[in-house]
Design brief:
With about 230 residues, the protein is of the alpha/beta class. It has eight helices and seven strands. It binds zinc ion.
Length: about 230
């Protein structure tokens, strides 16, 4: 299966941290392989306060998450981030606007591949599913291969149980099907852990994937999986 490694890629996400949880290792590996990474993130993640101990305002959380994304972006060498400001939790109402904002960006940077969510949104989050649709439309328009993030097949069946335990805010699809990947990229677990840990406001107990069983954390930190479609 053809990979995006060593190419110019555009990643489309909904929240500042999606890129790190879903594909930090592969994005870093792309840079190492001579590729270039660009990111469009549609919201500033102001609803993502379930992991915070102290109350913050939306405006404060937007600032915090922007800083965290910039820090992570340095680690995996993002050439440029377009951090849009559509309302977290309501992305599905803005897919046309996000698509229109993304068009000139794609024309300008001319990526060779697009990375984003698939129909399951990985966690079932409706914002993720909505961004996956924007990515699909862009990939079709520019005839680019689309690499959709998916869970490691060994954990996908039980994943809903883990995710439900972590959910406090946000809207999710009632039933999530976890499709089978057709591409696996082995990654450096230490690199992925370090990048995820940039998003301190989104981490419980200072550890990524807190609440997940040890075998699942190992799987998530050692390889990333995609469904490639052309
Ligand atoms: Zn997210």
């Amino acid at each position: 299966m053809q990979t995006f490694l060593g190419k110019k890629i555009l990643i489309l996400t909904a929240h500042p941290d999606d890129e790190s949880y879903a594909a930090a290792g592969s994005i870093f590996k792309n840079y190492q392989s001579g590729g270039q990474n660009f990111l469009i993130c549609s919201s500033r993640g102001e609803r993502g306060r379930s992991h915070l101990k102290k109350p913050v305002t939306d405006a404060q959380l937007k600032k915090i998450r922007r800083k965290e994304l910039l820090k992570a972006g340095k680690l995996f060498h993002l050439s440029r981030i377009w951090l849009l400001n559509f309302p977290d939790g309501k992305i599905k109402n803005f897919t046309n606007a996000i698509y229109r904002k993304s068009l000139p960006i794609v024309k300008k940077i001319k990526p060779k591949a697009i990375l984003s969510f698939g129909s399951d949104g990985i966690t079932g989050h409706l914002d993720h599913i909505a961004m996956g649709k924007v990515a699909k439309k862009l990939a079709r328009k520019f005839q680019l291969p689309l690499y959709a993030f998916v869970l490691p097949p060994t954990i996908s069946r039980r994943a809903l149980i883990y995710f439900k335990a972590r959910r406090k805010f946000g809207k999710y699809a009632n039933k999530s099907k976890f499709p089978k990947p057709n591409l696996k990229i082995s990654i450096n677990p230490r690199v992925k852990k370090r990048i995820i840990c940039c998003h301190l406001s989104q981490i419980d107990n200072g550890r990524p994937y807190s609440g997940f069983p040890a075998f699942a954390i190992k799987e998530l930190l050692n390889a990333e999986y995609f469904i490639v479609s052309k």
